[in-house]
Amino acid sequence: MEPQESQDAPDGLEEQRAFICASFNQDTTSLSVGTKTGYRLFSVTAVDKLDCIHEGVECPDVYIVERLFSSSLVVVVSLSMPRRMNVYHFKKGTEICNYSYSNDILSVRLNRQRLVVCLEESVYIHNIKDMKLLKTLLNTPTNLTGLCALSVNHSNSYLAYPGSATIGEITVYDANNLSTLTLIQAHDSPLAALAFNSSGTKLASASEKGTVIRVFSVPEGQRLFEFRRGMKRYVSISSLSFSADAQFLCASSNTETVHIFKLEQHSPSQDEESPTWSAYMGKMFSAASTYLPSQVSDMMHQDRAFATVRLNMFGLKNICALATIQKLPRLLVASSDGCLYIYNVDPQDGGECVLVQKHRLFESGEEQVEEKEEEDPEDGSPPPTSQSYAATVALPSTPPSSTTLMGYSEEGGAQTGDVIPEHEFAESPVCLDDENEFPPVGNQSN
Fold first, then answer.
1. Cα 216 to Cα 406: distance, rounded to the nearest angstrom
2. DSSP 3-state assignment of 281?
3. Comparing C-alpha atoms, which of 129, 78, 141 is closest to residue 105?
4. What is the arithmetic mean of pLDDT over 416-435?
5. What is the pLDDT of residues 133-142, one digit of tens each?
6. Which interval of the chain is the signal sequence (predicted)?
């Protein structure tokens, strides 16, 4: 996510210059930000404060930074070495391993089972427990942005990436069993965004036109939902994200509007039970659509946004995510203006979301907006923060030995570094005790 300067936001120019990229972790409890000087990790388990867990300065100009859940494992790629992926244990300040590739790294995705590296015309799949290269997908369709999605659910580890450079075809790949599952004909135009729900049973997609967002079942590839973002103009969809329960889907773009769609099936019985004017008009449109051209009929069956957010900027790239923070549903928007915006979402009525907090990512000050978080009515104490996941990996109490980690490559793919510390994952999964340590946490050198 590259920043773009906007004349509408002169006050944030310094933050825009420092900001290079941003990503939420797999359960939306942490925000990772790549900067000119390195990277920063933030905890987003509370509304009224944004704690900086760690600031890494191992390498400058970080354009990819991905954290594995709430663990200490973080993957970093720098503009100074765009073909090299570094995997760090950020709390100990040590490098777990590094890999170099034949071309620039465009994106990295990871869950507790797999780490996926996407290049323009190839995809590399690593076993995250020992970082060995398991599979190289060569000669994939040209993918200039490194678009891909990996399901958070490591029991299936589904991987989605473009199956064509000219149309919106999706290849769904089983990264556990290393085999192709299905091809989905999702859009007429090339793909722009992909996202799995947390269980890996649904896949959302958008094309470069950005007017229609579709949701498919996985692995069947059946279309489940179709949402219309807009009709007047084409936009660039920058992110798609499901809520944890897969009841909602949010989409952000290069416009000032973030859309939230509700995934619900409309049954005829519901319309009969509530004979409202809208239900009556819905029946009329449904009947009329059978006599109209297919393109017009499809538009009449597309659902509109359930809730929206109006951002105070235009033309800046951003990412969005839905999360439950302090027992309430929230929409998080991290923007290249150097700010994190937190909105309340009404899960019943939807409508315009209310901005409750704005955090600056590059200074200690923060700005309270609209309203203050209410205290727990029972005991007067603030609501507890959502408990984050702990990565199912083990970290030895004794310092690891320095050995060369040997992966293998298919036809000259990834290459390991010369000397790589022994990987710190144990054979049996043991919970990483990160929740008791942050925020904040300082580095510890071996």
1. 38
2. helix
3. 78
4. 37
5. 999 999 999 9
6. none
Reported as a pLDDT band with limits 50, 70 and 90, residue 304 is: confident
Task: Give the position of tokens 């509408």.
Answer: 8
For the full predicted model, state whether its pTM sits above 0.70.
yes
The CA-to-CA distance between both ends of the chain, in Å, stands at 34
The CB density around residue 373, as the number of other CB atoms within 10 Å, is 16
Residue listed under structure tokens 């300082």: 442
Check if the beta carbon of residue 409 is closer than 8 Å to that of residue 442: no
Tokens read off for 305:
């946004």
* Cα distance between residue 180 and residue 160, in whole Å: 10
Do the beta carbons of residue 76 and residue 396 sit within 8 Å? no
Helix H, strand E, coil C: the string for 407-435 is: CCCCCCCCEECCCEECCCCCCCCCCCCCC
Which three-class secondary structure state does DSSP give residue 298? helix
Q: Which residues contact 96 (CB under 8 A, 6 or more apart)?
A: 73, 87, 88, 89, 131, 420, 421, 423, 424
Q: What is the DSSP string of 112-143?
A: SSEEEEE-SSEEEEEETTT--EEEEEESPPP-
Contact predicate 216/206, CB 8 Å: no
- Please tell me the predicted confidence (pLDDT) of residue 443: 33
Mean pLDDT for the stretch of residues 199-205: 97
Element (H, E) at 284: helix 277-289
| pLDDT of 255 over the 60 cut | yes
Return the SS3 of 70. coil
Residue 418: what pLDDT?
33
Q: Distance between CA atoms of 260 and 249, rounded to whole angstroms?
A: 6
* Overall residue count recorded for the chain in this entry: 446
- Calpha distance 118→330 (Å, rounded): 30
Cα dist from 242 to 11, 120, 207, 247, 288, whole Å: 32, 26, 17, 8, 32
Please answer whether residues 162 and 169 qualify as being in contact, where contact means their C-beta atoms are separated by less than 8 angstroms. Answer: yes
CA distance 217 to 223: 6
Q: Edge-to-edge strand order for the sheet containing 39-43?
A: 19-24, 30-35, 39-43, 51-56
Q: Quick one: pLDDT at residue 235?
A: 85
CA-nearest of 97, 210, 111 to 153 is: 111
Which is more confident, 10 or 331? 331
Q: Mean pLDDT in the chain?
A: 78
Give the tokens for residue 61: 């100009």
